[in-house]
Amino acid sequence: MNLTLAVALAITIAQGVPRARPIIIASKPFGESYILCEMFAQLLEARGFRVDRRPGLGATEIAFAALRTNAIDVYPEYTGTGLLAILGDTTRQSPRQAFIRVATEFRRQYGARWLPPLGFENTYAISVRRETATRYALRTLSDLARVAPSLSGGFTADFIGRGDGLPGLSRAYGLRFREVRPLLGAVKYRALASGDVDVIDGYSTDGLIARYDLVVLVDDRRFFPPYEAAALVSPSLAADDPRAIAVLTELSGRIDDTMMRSFNRRLEVDGVARAALDTLGLVVSKTGTAPASRGSLRAPTWDSFVHETVDERGALAQRTLRHLLLTSVSLVLAAIVAIPFGVALERWRRLAEPLVRATGVLQTIPGIALLAFMIPLLGIGTVPALVALFIYSLYPIVRNTYSGVRDADPVAVNAAHALGMTPGQVLRYVRLPLAAPTIMAGVRTAAVINVGTATLAAFIGAGGLGEPIVTGLALSDTGMILSGAVPAALLALLVDLALGICERAVRPRGL
Amino acid sequence: MKRYQTPAGPIEALAGVTLEVASGECVALVGESGSGKTTLLRCFNRLVEPDAGTIMVDDVNVHQMNEVELRRHVGYVLQDGGLMPHWTVRRNVELVPWLREAPNADRLATDALALVGFADSTFDDRYPRQLSGGQRQRVAMARALAAHPTVVLLDEPFGALDAITRADLQEMFAGIRKRRPVTCVLVTHDMFEAMRLADRIAVMRGGHIEHVGTPRQISHAPATEYVARLVEKAGLRRLEAATQ
Q1: pLDDT per position as a tens digit, A159-218
Q2: Which of B38, B86, B127 to mutate to probe the A interface, most A CBs <10 Å?
Q3: Which DSSP string corresponds to A405-430?
Q4: Residue A357, domain CATH
Q5: Which of A159, A190, A216 is the last residue of a domain?
Q6: Is 50 exceeded by the pLDDT of residue A5?
Q7: Is A245 found in the same domain as A133?
Q8: Measuring CA to CA, which residue among B141, B150, B133, B97 is closest to residue B117?
Q9: What is the pLDDT of residues A13-48, one digit of tens each?
Q10: Is the Cβ–Cβ distance between B96 and A420 less than 8 Å?
Q11: What integer pLDDT is reported at residue A150 of this predicted model?
């Protein structure tokens, strides 16, 4: 009952009731996007708007799906990404042409609005170590093509897969690497610095390019489209609130490449954003001096971990609670559905295996993909996260219930029938009690999987312990990642322990 | 007649079997594995439905009775006891009276437990796992008798026990029949056991009955070569056991 209500409510919110709610500012899960998101948010707040932050939403697919359906209102996007990843347009264009094209097409197709570009470009920066560049005399991507067969590349999975990424680049320059390894954004630079790979796909505004003294190879054949950053605005905000649009437009043309690179170099989202707005004279900092000084590029892992878990223990406790809530609500709902389903399957044995396997297939859908599928239906936030976790919990419970009930002591079951129990009585008094420990073991497995999977919920803004993991991955902050991962692991252990006790409690005496 | 479908084609598990059991009588069904003795037994409480033929109990065709009701009025003892592992001894014995909603279930269980030698209540709260094989079979016997059924079906009730325990339980069974006359159908592969416990013996082979008669008729005038061989083997085995 309550769930139906919650779902209905969430759908209403996702569809957007005109401005009765705060403006929802989101970002994709990498540092620059966080900073811009925070800048948008603080600027709007300074102008008296109510704002809700949803930083670190999955990838382009998730963020844009959320924007299109008005589940979020603004996030920073790049014209090249809009052109290629969303419109699928591969024609070569100037920055200006590209902007005009995405602006018209997005308005026409989705009702979404691109605000004038912020002023900097963040294109792919194929980078090598200075030492590699010197040794092979590399300046351009054409130079790289010459020696690529003796080098190994480390690229984000996204870049390896996308047509406008490695496949296109390889065709344009005739590139062939000795090997290509998919790497996570956060570890790319370290892998390059340590010599594990020789070439990576950086972003031109990455602070790390300067820090590691890397050489960015020139795209001499102009393969990459322009990637100008701009605020992308949802159909509902674009239609309903010209004032907010005007405020956001204040940022247009104000941030150049150098500026953005230096912001990125001091990744400390809140402080940098404040300092940035301060610098631009758009917001006068209340504290006088910007608190950005604390954030060195990457605080040593331990310090950052201690900061996140000790100084921010209130936030940690809240995330843990939220995590537990996501996990337990989805688990209880799954048990309510899966246990009767598993029991019913015992009656229709012929259907049982195919159906159990079908729930098993649900289990194999990658978490991010499942979350992405759900955005058009349920928006972002708690409801789709609960639904995803619910789906993941089904299989272990259905499987264990079915086999527990089916395999319950056959001699006892046979005797129960022979002595005159009705099938219902056999189920209630013999099969179910005997299967209880097995069923509980299934619930326990589901719970532990759930605690782990719930960290992904942060990608669609549902919070929990995944939040610092997503942010930490984006900021290359191992300590922050651990401040989510370690409590999540401990939570999984605790949940396992607690349900282990339940499992013993439901085991009938005498077994 | 009972026919089973197998990958190799239909098999007649029972064919042309006619057997009459008088009230209070104990008839043993003896034969090798696959002779149809258990299939025949299970027809009595409709765990097996014959493809043709009728089974009458007290002039009522069992096929016309509600099968659940029928089973609540027919005692049943399985080779492996089949006790509910998660129930205490007492709850197991109270099972059928409870199913029949007998108001005096508790007393019926006490009486039945006394019949099998558990007069004091020391075993009441134990679980089957805590009992020896022989004790479990006693409890199974008590469970079958608790509701005073008119017929008790026993499927190799002592088959899984060691020789000494088996002898004890056979003695107990004979004693129970003296104290509480009940119609029994006993399935066993042990001709010696059949001779010791049954009033009449039906020797089965390949789905039909080779010979029905009293133990004396069976041993002194076996109807067929096969029956003679069975009798002889049973006797020989006893002899061997005695000399060792």
Answers
A1: 887 777 888 899 899 999 998 888 776 678 878 888 889 999 988 888 778 778 899 999
A2: B86
A3: HHTS-HHHHHHHHHTT--HHHIIIII
A4: 1.10.3720.10
A5: A216
A6: no
A7: no
A8: B141
A9: 444 444 568 999 999 887 788 889 999 999 999 999
A10: yes
A11: 93
Contacts of A418 in chain B (CB under 8 A): 45, 47, 71, 76, 78, 82
pLDDT of residue A511: 78
Measured between alpha carbons, how far is B207 from B14 in angstroms, rounded to an integer?
Answer: 4
Residues B96 and B131 in one domain: yes
A and B: number of Cβ contacts within 8 A: 68
Asked if residue A398 has pLDDT above 90, the reply is yes
Q: Is residue B79 part of a domain?
A: no
Of B47, B87, B143, Cβ closest to residue A510: B87
Among the partner residues A417, A420, A510, nearest to B85 by beta-carbon distance: A510
Q: In this complex, do A418 and B80 lie within 8 Å of one another by their Cβ atoms?
A: no
Nearest CA in chain A to B70: A420
**Assembly ipTM:** 0.88
Cα(A434)–Cα(A427) distance, rounded to whole angstroms? Answer: 10
Domain boundary among A183, A216, A249: A216
Question: In the structure encoding, which two tokens stand for residue B136, read together?
Answer: 């479990």
Q: Dump pLDDT digits (tens) for A289-312.
A: 333 333 333 446 777 787 777 777
- Residue-number span of the structural domain to which A200 is assigned: 124-216
Q: Which residues are within 8 A (CB) of A404 and not within 5 positions of it... i.e. 6 or more apart?
A: A342, A434, A435, A436, A437, A438, A439, A442
Domain limits for position B126 = 88-149
Checking if the pLDDT of A430 tops 80, the result is yes
* Partner-chain contact B82 A420, CB within 8 Å: no
Do B63 and B118 reside in the same domain of the chain?
A: no
Nearest Cβ partner of B76 from A418, A425, A430?
A: A418
